[in-house]
Write a structure and sequence with these properties.
The protein is an alpha/beta fold. The chain has two domains: 208 residues, Enolpyruvate transferase domain (UDP-n-acetylglucosamine1-carboxyvinyl-transferase, Chain); 215 residues, UDP-n-acetylglucosamine1-carboxyvinyl-transferase, Chain (Alpha-beta prism), CATH 3.65.10.10. It contains twelve helices and 24 strands. A four-stranded mixed sheet has the order 22-23-1-24, covered by helices on one side. It has a four-stranded mixed sheet with strand order 2-15-17-16. The longest helix has 14 residues.
């Protein structure tokens, strides 16, 4: 397996730049997580075109902790995974999930299948994120699941095995709880019926899960009350392989860069339609007046520098787009209002406050409420500044886009955190014309 580079503190300076050319979209983080774990639930499978990043490496380590093996090709283009066949081992040690909330939530349900105790933890940020509803769901299924500090946050202790059953769970905290239960439920004896107590936020991510499950030969369905997956199923992708599609969350920064700073055009390849909710960035840009074309058959999106106008947009299903939309709003004429965003506060950082504070530091006029972020682009004049990436990959990348069109140089502290979802982001950014200086 290739050795992962040690992370070190990196500040990145972005100078005002013009962009253009052709770029390949990075693979999807959401699909890669699910595919790695699905291959773990299987006897084995090959995952092609994966995103190998800090977060997805955490999921690989978890599959190995449960008894599987993951072999990465020298160029990270394939992952050959020998799975644990739906019967996870009790891990020999604490499973460290680093900063990956997706990993922790998905594999908490895996731990509930093991005949013994699993302990999960992570870094400071991950240990502040809510896990309580998923722990409660495991207990409803007859397992034991506790937060060691009694606050619904990691470290977590999970004891199984569970055989399936029915759970009632809120849908407005994290869709990852639903994904975790569906993936684990397929290999229980009874299956799992999920009754949603509240409206599901980030619903497209559950559709991604259902799409990946289907590719692995597992059926999960939406019901009037929530979701259901029958038990006794086996994971086995056709031909033993699964190919990861391009990532629209990561593409959003490239598309925004094109709409703000492409004199000619910026062409993004690898944009085939899928269940990804963040494909909504195309519609958002269209509504703002961007010159953008999407060849869906060819998987190519082309953007050009455009005069943008503010809009109102809800992110209840697309929380990862909030930082990108906020930057676009800071440059657009008029006011951009981002609604339904309270759940975006429970990510790697409170992204609502982080975006408001860092864009304000760059000269934007921003109003923050609990569930709403308002950016007055007509009153904003972005200036180069030193800003804090908040140890959050999406904050770092969105601020880099803002730096393209700010007056003066922008220094982003903590640039190394792009490794979570887009490890070569700054190389790609340079490749399309951005002036990037690493410190």
């Amino acid at each position: 397996m290739p050795r992962d580079c040690d992370d070190s503190r990196m500040n990145v300076e972005i100078s005002p730049s013009r962009v253009g050319g052709t770029v390949q979209a990075p693979p999807s983080k959401s699909y890669t997580h699910r595919a790695i774990l699905a291959a773990g639930y299987a006897d084995g499978a090959t995952v092609t075109d994966p995103l190998v990043s800090a977060d997805t490496r955490a999921t690989m380590r978890a599959v190995e902790a449960y008894g599987g093996t993951v072999d990465r090709s020298a160029d990270d283009s394939t992952l050959d995974i020998d799975g644990f066949g739906g019967q996870p081992d009790v891990p020999d040690d604490v499973i460290g999930c680093a900063n990956s909330g997706t990993t922790m939530r998905l594999i908490t349900a895996t731990g509930a299948l093991a005949d013994g105790i699993t302990v999960l933890s992570g870094d400071d940020s991950l240990r502040s994120r809510p896990q309580g509803p998923l722990l409660d769901a495991v207990e409803q299924l007859g397992g034991r699941a506790k937060s060691t500090r009694g606050n619904g946050q990691a470290p977590l202790v999970v004891e199984g095995p569970v055989d399936g059953g029915s759970v009632s769970i809120p849908g407005d905290v994290s869709s990852q709880y639903i994904t975790a239960l569906l993936m684990a439920g397929a290999v229980t004896d009874e299956g799992i019926e999920i009754d949603l107590e509240t409206e599901l936020k980030s619903a497209p991510y559950v559709q991604i899960t259902i799409e990946v499950l289907d590719a692995f030969g597992v059926e999960a369905v939406e019901t009037d009350a929530g979701f259901r997956v029958d038990g006794g199923q086996s994971y086995a992708p056709a031909g033993g392989e699964y190919a990861v599609p391009g990532d629209f969350s990561s593409m959003s920064y490239l598309l925004a860069a094109g709409a703000l700073a492409a004199d000619d055009e910026l062409e993004v390849r690898g944009a085939q339609p899928s269940a990804q909710g963040d494909a909504a960035i195309v519609e958002v840009l269209e509504r703002m007046g961007a010159d953008i074309d999407w060849d869906r058959d060819g998987g190519v999106i082309t953007t050009r520098q455009s005069s943008l106008s503010g809009i109102e947009v809800g992110v209840e299903d697309t929380p990862d787009l909030l930082p990108t939309i906020a930057v676009l709003g800071a440059v657009a004429d008029g006011t951009t209002t981002i609604t339904d965003c309270e759940h975006v506060r429970y990510k790697e950082t409170d992204r609502v406050s982080a975006v408001a504070e860092e864009l304000t530091a760059m000269g934007a006029t921003v109003e923050e409420e609990q569930d709403t972020l308002t950016i007055h682009g007509g009153e904003s004049d972005l200036q180069g500044a030193t800003v804090d990436g908040r140890a959050d990959h999406r904050i770092v990348m969105s601020l880099a886009v803002a730096g393209l069109v700010a007056d003066g140089d922008t220094t982003i502290e903590g640039g190394e955190h792009v490794d979570v979802s887009f490890p070569d982001f700054f190389d790609v950014f340079e490749g399309i014309g951005a002036t990037v200086t690493r410190e």
